[in-house]
């Protein structure tokens, strides 16, 4: 399929309810309505506007200094709420400072890394703040990883200290002792070490420039193993000004509920920066539960929350109940809210504003729905291009060797311009960063960062997200690297070779994992044992939902498997093709033979379980 055909198909897609919704463009009237909604927040927006226009990297402003400034000015305001218990700014800052003293005694200073392996709780957040107050880097490990994948991530961090949550025992115990840093604490031991330590602000916090590195956030990327993307304080401050100050616009009396993992930028950067933009409160959900979501929102007195698209679908799939409207939420912020559920979600749950945004951990820009326009990922004032692409998802060069932009309403690959004004933090591995940079794109000497994402140009610097390209697809709010999954499948004894790709399932966001498998000669597939193997090797969100047995693979002239053709065939056609198809019921039941209602059950979040 040519790029032109692909764009036409996307633009005429009627799965979002109507062709009009699928090709929505933004007009002057949309912007004017947005300006009216901004009016009550004008003073706060004016305060944050300079931070979006100019953020000198040498400025002495960081996450830690912003946080402790609020603590000094309003020590009795609620800062973090967890399972109904509130900790004030003053109390939290004193605890953070004691934690920083422990880290400092362990030799942690500017540029060092502290690895944090934790599920969602207040301690994880305070440990992160203690780390960045010292000018050190918080390595936010993904607690879904296990074994050699987690060992690889720990190795990338090269941390001086690792602190782990007792609720992550299974993940922690899968790390070989040889891969651990010199100093390892669980929460209880760390809290004991912090007893009696000084609770004054570390002197270095006020001296740190905004260019200092703050977090390492893990992203699957396209290489098959996780990569650590870099988040500097300066980029986080851009989120504070652009997303928090100008778009989310919380008041200090608001509470932002965060059910997403703190190792994600949705929680750590977007949500926390929105809170600290105004000195509001952050309420941390231990984990997301569709059936108990609104109960937890009400318990934590939340007036806003962050989301990914799947979270919203799961909430809509729940039976209607009184708590759907017995909460105080007026604003939600996140990414992946599809046009087909946008109106239904707002109306059912009484949400006034949907602040959809688009961004990526490694990307040097973000789009945010500051004007509160329906069904858009929002606006970006920074330079970018949306260009034509080839079947492999790469930018397509014309006869002059340059790239070609798509027009308003068109769909293409998003590239972010790299410049002194908008530098790229990239990954910890410079070679991996360079692979994502497109040079001499429109003129000699220019440089753009390849997002790997397909977006639609809606006009007035607005876009809508369409799809993820290349060897990574997105499922359950996570990037899934096909080569990582292929490695796990290929290590199963009955498999000769596998090809992994994402397929669309109606009523869901992103793409579900599907694997085509060629069995070893004389081998039979035990579907239940295969599932057990994959759950041991992979995070649950990366275990493929569909398995197709094939005789062999068709390849390109450069010996690449034809994933495009496999993706087109999907799962239903594969059954008609003669190849046996299996579907995943969950950790306990494993794979079973494909049945007609399976896709509907996935969309309704009934399967897979575990």
UniProtKB/TrEMBL annotation:
GO terms for biological process: long-chain fatty acid import into cell. NCBIfam families: PRK08279.1. The keyword Transport does not apply. Residues 1-21 are annotated as: Disordered. GO terms for cellular component: plasma membrane. Residues 484-560 form the AMP-binding enzyme C-terminal domain. Keywords: ATP-binding, Ligase, Nucleotide-binding. This is Long-chain-acyl-CoA synthetase. Coiled coil: none annotated. PROSITE patterns: AMP_BINDING (PS00455). Residues 67-395 form the AMP-dependent synthetase/ligase domain. Residues 1-11 have a biased composition (Basic and acidic residues). Belongs to the ATP-dependent AMP-binding enzyme family. Its EC number is 6.2.1.3. The keyword Disulfide bond does not apply. One of its GO terms (molecular function) is long-chain fatty acid-CoA ligase activity. It comes from Gordonia amicalis. InterPro entries: AMP-bd_C, AMP-bd_C_sf, AMP-binding_CS, AMP-dep_synth/lig_dom, ANL_N_sf. It comes from the Bacteria.
